[in-house]
Amino acid sequence: MVKRLLLLLLFAAATLFEVAAQEALPGFRVRNAGNNRIVIGWINPFQNIAQISIQRSADSLGIYKTIISLADPKSVQNGFTDTKAPNDRMFYRIFYAMEGGTYYFTKAKRPDTTKLRSPALAVAPRLVIGARDIPYKYKDSIFVRNRDTLLIVNRDTLRVTAKDTVVVKATLPKEVKKPEWIPSKRIFSGLDGNVLIRLPDAPGREYSIKFYDNTELILEIPSLSEKELTLDKANFHHSGWFFFELYDDKRLVERNKFFLKP
Description:
Layout: H1 2-21, E1 29-34, E2 37-43, E3 49-57, E4 65-69, E5 77-82, E6 91-98, E7 103-105, E8 126-129, E9 132-135, E10 151-154, E11 159-162, E12 167-169, E13 187-189, E14 195-198, E15 207-213, E16 216-224, E17 228-231, E18 240-248, E19 251-260
Antiparallel strand pairs: 1-2, 2-5, 3-4, 3-6, 6-7, 8-9, 10-11, 11-12, 13-14, 14-17, 15-16, 15-18, 18-19
């Protein structure tokens, strides 16, 4: 009886350690548990989530295959054990969609073998604003409006707020009226939601393209000779605005943006 009780306590402690190690979407944890078991775990902070699927690829920039779609995406603590991975160096990412059609892809991760620590030993990160020292739990959720977010950052006004605490404002120069956005005739989003590239003179040029999510480079085509090319919207991880730079023999030809619908 005592032995059985001890085993139950050890199992409960291990479960608590596993939960403590999980991260909130868009963060998640991928761990090599041994014996051909890859454990993917996360915390769901969204109340209006409609779908969660786990995808796997041999290359972080290659083709991803959905290995499972969760039956209960709204569960706060969730996870999946992959026992059919070809090896323990595969890349994993999570696709999740909200009610209304907005969808996102997390960044890709490989399994780690870090030993889990007791929650009592974990130290929460802290953010200092002025004279206030404010703890926050989910670093990856800092720009996401959800029920666990402690900070909301508005990049357009440089206004940072901490819930029920403090407001910091930066002095901005007087607004200069910008010309209305003109869509590109070379690179734009199509009716099917994918990205279309039309360069009729490409065979005689040395075109290259860089795609950005805000200022982060997410995709680069170093050489392009096709007159027309379609990029799947899955390459862009979420809906919204994306920026691009088109070069001809390293000379900037066009810098513009396009919008991907949910």
